[in-house]
Amino acid sequence: MSVFLLRRFATLLATLIGASLIIFLVLDALPGNAAQMLMGADASPDAVRALSIKLGLDQPLSLRYLLWLKGMMVGDLGNSYVYGTPVAGLIAERLVLTIPLAIMSMSVTVVLALSAGIYTAANHNRLGDVGVMSLTQVGIALPNFWFAILLILLFAVKLQWVSAGGFAGWDDGIWPGVRSLLLPAISLSVVQAAILARVTRSAVLEVLREDFVRTARAKGLGKREVLWRHVLRNAMIPVMTVMGLQFANLLAGTIIIENVFYLPGLGRLIFQSIANRDLIVVRNCVMLLAAMVVIVNFVVDVLYAFIDPRIKVHHL
Amino acid sequence: MLKKLTIFAVAAAFIAAPLPSFAQAKKDSVVMAMALEPPGLDPTNAAAAAIAEVTLYNIYETLTKINEDGSVSPLLAESWQASPDLKTYTFKLRKGVKFQNGEAFDSAAVKFSYDRNAAATSTNKDKSLYQSFESVTAPDADTIVIALKYSEPNLPFLLGQASGSIVEPKSAPTNVTQPVGTGPYQLGGWVKGSSITLNKWADYRNASAIKLSKVTIRFISDPAAQIAALLSGDVDAFPRVATRSVAQLKADPRFTVLVGGSKAKTIVAINERKKPLDDVRVRRAILAAIDRKAMIDGAADGFGTPIGSFYTPGSLGFVDTTGINPYDPEKAKQLLKEAGVTNLELSLKLPPPPYARAGGEILAAQLAKVGITAKIENVEWAQWLSQVFAGTGPHNFDLTIVSHVEPFDLVKITESDYYLGYNNEAFNTLYKQIMSTPDEAGRAKLLGDAQKMLATDAVAGFLYQPQWPTVINKKLKGVWKEVPQFENDFSAWSWE
Asked: What is the CATH number of the domain that holds B128?
């Protein structure tokens, strides 16, 4: 087990270092510079030069990369070119929104998808199965930003139950915050849930055809018990894999959804920072996202071993 | 079934509970929205218009105040006097004014602020203005004397811009995040990416006249989200809202739509450093191919007034020059023939704003009718600034569409590294003459000549002066219609 973990961990580190190098080089190749962008079209050229030096943009490439790596080790990510405040603080402020949003939409996704997937598999080829599967087809076809606008029109503009966007924060208790994230979480999860439901259904169906299911039924276990005790655990491997991938997708999806709901999350921070050439913020955010994705996949790999003890043997 | 119903009812009740922060009794607070978030709150060290929109005349004050009609009135200065040659100005300062951190406002603070703007390390947008000061002297605590290297008739106006905000020496370095000024409002809170709250400053010299005790400013850039925020009642005022939303909001009885002029000029910039665009006949042909009316309707949803030069209606000495190179496709073809230009292919670089992207499509179609092929290339602002605009070059473009929002920026045309590359000695001489003419009538006449010269030489495809719509709740009073510069004067706002 520990050798398996170590090997996975070494891969994780190598991936992160590779990612950091690619992120740094790609961002550096972007045309345009932060100083000119910050000062705008009508500024004196002299002021632009003064700012460029102040931001340290005149230093060589390799030095800036090494300084960045060193900064990440000691937790000093530098100051944002635009806001002039520490990048770590900016990211932390945004995570207060993005992490709860990701958790909420992932939970909605999992609850919707598993219940729909299991229900349709258990009622294979009956009316309920066909009905729910057609719904998932629609769900996959929906662009999430468009669905978000529909939700806003109905619940914010027409019914005025929730506000059209913005984030109430966590200062007044948990409910105002959760409420401002409700519509965004739902719009993010619809597509994801539709995909995951289809994966769950086929995975469950596959396991239902296995010999051990017939054996379990033959020795007198009820349909329900077989489904919950034997089938689900075996069907979880492909479902977990897709969930891991979806988590990455979800983080990317927040960039658009946060713009529609004008939420101050990580996605919007990245979006604005790219436009402003606030590259120091962009590269730290992208690095964080890359790390999150790599770590989630690492956790998924480890979970495989728990769900199916045969897996770690294969890797040894 | 009953259980399910109960769960649904509880959930619905939660969702429908009143919103604590958004729907308060609207007596003395306002929620305003704007498209972009300011990068920091010090307008003296960064250029973004959003900084001025939040801070100018609210947190910080300037010696003079630019009014809705573009006129200038006293603010931190009670009065001023210019020398006959317009090279020396003497300002008498208001007495008994304090900064929000308790320090006294006096001539030392003014001198500190202006010297700081001119310093070598300064990143002030108008650094060149402050570097043109020969000296700033403070003979006593209530007097400031500015001696300029050249005549500047517009100095009182220029000092009323956000870049001329008077800061307090000790708090100046931290103004980016903790602004300290002499204005009626103080920073209450800033949730980055979401909103800024301004609270009324109780010790303001004229606090009783300030009606709103709290202003929340939210940042909503997406046009669809802007409409939704207004329609749902989340937002009471939206200055300079996306023009395509306006028709829908005009029809709604809950809102007033104010449409004001600006000092901005939307133009088709022509790179005169490139052949054959250095030939005035080719430039005139491009202008004759442009139908300004179609451009305004298509690119600005009708929110624009045609202009024929680099100057806006309502400004001193404005003359209508739209007749100098009017829309005439036949003449355009003829001019191209005279210049011996056939199969002209030009690059057209478009920055992100909708007016530029939509305007670019229309321009390309109009140019195609006279036989000019425009190859559209969409660029980001950062690319546009470095490739097209930057004074250091490479000025890598033939045509571009952009709106210049600075008031009175004729001076830019005289700068040799300006992206248009006009560089005409006759114009530069005329401009110097304007700047050194003390009487307004004489200046107005010369300004008229300058506008005509730019129009005749087809220095750029001057399109229109944008109009900026402001959507407000019908009961909100005191919001400016005209927009001589980017700012929101909350001290004048109140609820009916």
From this structure: 3.90.76.10
CB contact under 8 Å between A33 and B386, yes or no, is: yes
* B192·A264 Cβ contact <8 A: yes
- Residues of chain A with Cβ-Cβ distance to B220 below 8 Å are 165, 262
Report residue B223's pLDDT band, with 50, 70 and 90 as the boundaries. confident
Residue of A nearest to B419 (CA): A41
Question: Which residue, of B124, B151, B174, is where some domain finishes?
Answer: B174
For domain A87-315, which architecture applies?
Orthogonal Bundle (1.10)
The pLDDT of B239-263, averaged and rounded, is: 88
- Taking CB atoms and an 8 Å cutoff, what residues of chain A touch B20? 168, 172, 176
What is the arithmetic mean of pLDDT over A105-128? Answer: 90
pLDDT digits (tens, 9 = 90+) for A219-230: 888 888 888 888
CA-based nearest distance A163→chain B, Å: 6
State residue B24's pLDDT score. 44
Contact B218 A262 (CB under 8 A): yes
Lowest mean per-residue pLDDT among A270-279, B30-39, B423-432, B472-481: A270-279
Count of the separate structural domains present in chain B: 3
Residue B112 lies inside a defined structural domain of this protein: yes
Q: What is the pLDDT of residue B115?
A: 95
**Residue of chain B whose alpha carbon sits nearest to that of A168:** B21
CB–CB of B225 and A37 under 8 A?
no
Most A-contacting residue of B128, B226, B234, B241 (CB-CB within 10 A), to test interface? B234
Question: Between chains, do A47 and B222 touch, taking CB under 8 Å as contact?
Answer: no
Residues B281 and B400 in one domain: yes
What is the three-state SS of chain A?
CHHHHHHHHHHHHHHHHHHHHHHHHHHHHCCCCHHHHHHCCCCCHHHHHHHHHHCCCCCCHHHHHHHHHHHHHHCCCCECCCCCCEHHHHHHHHHHHHHHHHHHHHHHHHHHHHHHHHHHHHCCCCHHHHHHHHHHHHHHHCCHHHHHHHHHHHHHHHCCCCCCCCCCCCCCCHHHHHHHHHHHHHHHHHHHHHHHHHHHHHHHHHHHCCHHHHHHHHCCCCHHHHHHHHHHHHHHHHHHHHHHHHHHHHHHHHHHHHHHCCCCCHHHHHHHHHHHCCHHHHHHHHHHHHHHHHHHHHHHHHHHHHHCCHHHHHHC
pLDDT digit string, tens, across residues B205-218: 989 999 999 999 99
Residue B53 lies in a domain: no
**pLDDT of B26 over the 80 cut:** no
What pTM, to 2 d.p., does this model score? 0.81
